[in-house]
Design a protein that fits this description.
four-stranded antiparallel β-sheet
Length: 602
């Protein structure tokens, strides 16, 4: 809907709401049930973020690609009074964990315990509000993954075959996935893993690598045959394609997810190996294969289900309830085919009524300055680094969401970070909120005055209402970056309205008509501050809480309204205002840029 159409549509209700002096909308957010379960007849939203590998510290690109994006959407849904369950956890099985354990001289279990705590600390600092943050190395994971495997096996979707694999004779182990690196056969990138190339994204069979080297000892491996199990995706192509056509049409899909999935389906699905010659993983329960574990990309997505099962015994009410639950999944684009093809195929093959993907929000990549994040080279800001900067988590959240790579790769740049924070947070949003509340405190003893809107006020409120409708529309479509821009547009409109109205001059004229005019301007502006608080809350929860405290409004009064209306009653008393944001100084930003630019510059 274009802005002109919205303006015509919303003009009547806005005017009616503001011309009724007794009309006040209470933005009450209902408290969810404990435990959180779907409710028949309500909008039940199941949100997942791609499970982060447990063997590393997440960087800012990891955060915006999955957990931060999922958090904002889940918070938005809660504020719409939808029934929401937000699920995530650490992906703990596979070669990545075994490799890290060998590097650090620990057992895989010890590595998982160590890095789970690191992930948990980082996400808590970033105010990621999971309903469940679990792990995949659990008995629930073993039970559910093996049940899904048995269903696939008995339904004829599992194939046995011998496979040529790389064997390191020095280490006496098969080199699955991350245990081997070499030159990509598709793009010639030197450093491609044995299962996927990070540069071009192609999935790889390890024996296809050119000049392969064992990741542990750098020896050149030989080829040896091993027996394995395959998921026969070719038999599942038609139902997977049918699901894709339906979900991508009725749900919300990022364009890259549509392109990647349609390409896989167009090229034809082939059987994929789902077993590995490893010790750390979900054991394969089939006789003759019990010395193997499931491949992480068969096993890991099942983690969403098993983590939910660790939260509630009635997990099937979420995961086997396709008619009443909508599944939204957040991830970076390199995870797409496993969530849109392999995982749905695995569930379809069970012939049980699982909840399938409805919507997927997959980002492009966030780069760092002129290159990529690299822990080994000291390039980029990782979760623990962000904590050490002294910059509030909300400020990082704001910038990451403002540059969220929704349609193309984007960059975290310290200079742009400072510009955006100072211009948009401090000078635009923070300035409007602080000016309004400070003026109310100094001239009205913190008490909301009556509002008598004129035609100009109604036009301004209609403009705010258009931005509110745009915000809701964008958020429903998982266009989080555009949702945030709507907030900044409202704040900009508010600054312009306050500046044009000049209530400080009107109060000096000492006549009743001008005082009433000033009353209306500051009363309307304070209501806009409240609206900004509500809309900002999913993006910057700490700042949202601070604004609520200043407004003297309870934490549960943050439901997103349907239209711009009076939210604060005449006579409502706010608390003493205080500045929300601090300007970033050039010297501070330059110091941080140098600190995280690489080990060779330190």
């Amino acid at each position: 809907m274009d802005r002109e159409s919205k303006d015509i549509l919303l003009k009547g209700p806005v005017a009616a709401a503001w011309n009724d002096a007794s009309y006040v909308v209470k933005c009450f957010r209902a408290k969810p049930s404990e435990p959180i379960l779907p409710v028949s007849g309500e909008r039940n939203v199941l949100v997942t973020s791609a499970l982060p590998y447990v063997n590393n510290v997440p960087h800012l690109g990891n955060l915006i690609g999955c957990v931060l994006s999922g958090d904002v959407f889940a918070r938005y849904c809660r504020q719409r009074n939808y029934n929401v369950l937000y699920v995530c956890g650490t992906d703990e099985y596979g070669t990545a964990t075994e490799t890290k354990a060998i590097e650090e001289g620990l057992t895989p279990k010890e590595i998982c315990d160590k890095y789970f705590e690191i992930h948990d600390k980082v996400y808590k600092w970033f105010n990621i509000d999971f309903d469940i943050f679990g792990r995949t190395s659990t008995a629930h994971q073993t039970r559910i993954a093996q049940e899904i495997f048995w269903d696939l096996y008995h339904n004829g979707f599992i194939v046995k075959d011998n496979v040529d694999q790389l064997l390191c004779q020095t280490c006496d182990r098969f080199l699955a996935d991350r245990f081997v690196e070499g030159i990509c056969p598709f793009c010639s990138f030197d450093g491609a893993r044995g299962d996927q190339c990070d540069k071009c994204g192609h999935l790889i069979n390890a024996i296809e690598l050119k000049s392969p080297k064992c990741k542990l000892c750098s020896s050149e491996p030989c080829i040896k045959t091993s027996n394995h199990l395959f998921l026969d995706l070719a038999k599942l192509q038609d139902p997977v394609n049918e699901l894709f056509m339906k979900s991508s049409d009725q749900g919300v899909w990022s364009n890259n997810a549509k392109i990647i999935t349609s390409t896989w389906l167009r090229d034809g699905l082939n059987r994929r190996c789902i077993s590995r010659d490893l010790k750390w993983g979900t054991p394969v329960p089939l006789d003759g294969y019990t010395n193997k574990v499931f491949y992480v990309w068969f096993d890991a997505p099942i983690g969403y289900i098993s983590i939910t099962a660790g939260y509630i015994d009635e997990w099937e009410k979420w995961w086997k309830n396709p008619d009443e639950v909508k599944l939204y999944q957040f991830m970076a684009k390199d995870n797409v085919p496993f969530h849109t093809v392999v995982f749905p195929a695995s569930l379809i093959g069970t012939k049980k009524p699982y909840t399938f993907l409805d919507s997927i929000s997959s980002t492009e990549f966030l780069n760092y300055e002129d290159g990529k994040f690299s822990k080994s080279r000291g390039v980029g800001v990782f979760g623990n680094d962000a904590i050490d900067t002294g910059i509030p988590a909300d400020v990082f959240r704001f910038y990451l969401l403002l540059v969220r790579p929704e349609t193309q790769d984007s960059v975290f740049s310290w200079s742009d970070f400072a510009i955006k924070v100072n211009a948009e947070l401090v000078n635009n949003l923070g300035n409007f909120i602080n000016r309004t509340l400070t003026f109310l405190g100094k001239n009205y003893e913190l008490v909301m005055p009556p509002v008598f809107p004129n035609d100009g006020d109604i036009h301004f409120l209609e403009q705010i209402n258009v931005e509110l409708q745009n915000y809701i529309e964008n958020m429903e479509k998982c266009k989080l970056r555009d949702g945030l821009k709507c907030i900044l547009s409202i704040s900009k409109l508010g600054n312009g309205y306050l500046q044009a109205g000049e209530p400080w001059k009107l109060l000096k004229l000492n006549n009743n008509a001008d005082k009433l005019r000033a009353d209306s301007i500051i009363g309307i502006s304070t209501n806009v501050v409240y609206l900004l608080c509500i809309l900002l809350y999913p993006f910057m929860p700490s700042a949202g809480s601070d604004i609520l405290k200043q407004l003297n409004v309870m934490e549960n009064c943050i439901a997103i309204p349907e239209a711009m209306a009076p939210f604060l009653a005449v006579g409502h008393k706010i608390n003493e205002p205080f500045p929300l944001f601090v300007k970033l100084e050039d010297s501070q930003v330059l110091g941080l840029k140098k600190k995280y630019s690489g080990n060779d510059t330190c």
